[in-house]
Sequence to fold (257 residues):
Amino acid sequence: VRQPVVVHPQFTEPEAALRDAGHTVERVLLRPEDGFRLDAALVPERADLVVIGNPTNPTSVLHPASALAALARPGRVLVVDEAFMDAVPGEREALAGRTDVPGLVVLRSLTKTWGLAGLRIGYALAEPEIIAELERAQPLWPVSTPALAAAEACVSPRALAEAGHAAHRIAGDRAHLVAGLSALASRGVRVAGPAEGSFVLVAVPEAATVRQRLRALGYAVRRGDTFPGLGTDWIRLAVRDRPTTDAFLTALATALS
Fold:
């Protein structure tokens, strides 16, 4: 790798790993006024490694598969993090399984829908040559036996059907959350969107103070200013069931007072 590019705002660990490996990373910052949608013209032609999330954490933006595939070039590795794709009904815009995109690497996680973060289980899909290079850098015994057992269970027909139902449920619960947030627009609340993941990115006035007030009311939200490209007014909210969301919206209205 000579010129890695990471498209932000997104999960910060890929850039941190590249920097730890001694690389100089160039950032492409997507803009809130564009809805954090991908602008392929911002990605320099010289980039030989491009990293982007879909749907992206924390913006919850789902980029079109065609737009992502158009980033592929001879001599370029295109890494698409689809850790949250199973929260999208039908996994539309997924690139997993595509064999016509040169240099494509798709990262998937089994820890999100199933709440298995402690098992650290996921997988990569890529052409054999790239997988062989990854294997050379892979540590011994990278996945535990319980994690392997969980992975097998998570891809069973019953589990896949349950995950599909969960994606539709998340979509409905997210719409309920976004509607409640939109009702607070007069209080300065602004939802980035359209959101397509299991979380929503929101701008609120004096977000640090609002987070502290919400914590006192029993709600933890993710600060946004640690993501490149986001300022101090952003927070990320998880999609939860409707009773939880209704209680949270009441708390948020109080915290905005």
User: Anything to note?
Assistant: The CA atoms of residues 16 and 25 lie 9 Å apart. The helical segments are 13-20, 65-69, 128-137, 145-154, 157-182, 207-216, 242-256.
